[in-house]
């Protein structure tokens, strides 16, 4: 009986925490969306900083490639964030 109760309590807690997760895609791109995503995924900011540092070590520049997402540091960081 105690095992069933504890399993039910764990399942309820897991469902409640996932239901409380905020949908960050509803916000336009920018700092508010990044803050929302960081609240939902605590390791996201560290990963972003690591990807930016890797790109800078490779010699990529912030403004390289103009506004296109595929060029320069921005393109590398976007690809890096999708990996792993």
Structural class: mainly alpha
Dominant shape: elongated
State the share of residues found in helices, binned by percent.
55-70%
Q: Give the averaged pLDDT, no decimals.
A: 77
Please mark out the parts with pLDDT under 50 across 5 or more consecutive residues, or reply none.
none
Description:
With 84 residues, the protein is mainly α. It has one domain. Helix content is 63%, strand content 0%. It contains four helices and no strands. Helix 3 packs across helix 4. The protein is elongated. The model has no long low-confidence stretch (mean pLDDT 77).
Labels describing this entry:
single chain, 84 residues, mainly alpha
Structure summarized in a few sentences:
The longest helix has 18 residues, at 2-19. This protein is 63% helix and 0% strand.
Secondary-structure map:
Layout: H1 2-19, H2 31-40, H3 44-57, H4 72-82
Helix pairs in contact: 3-4
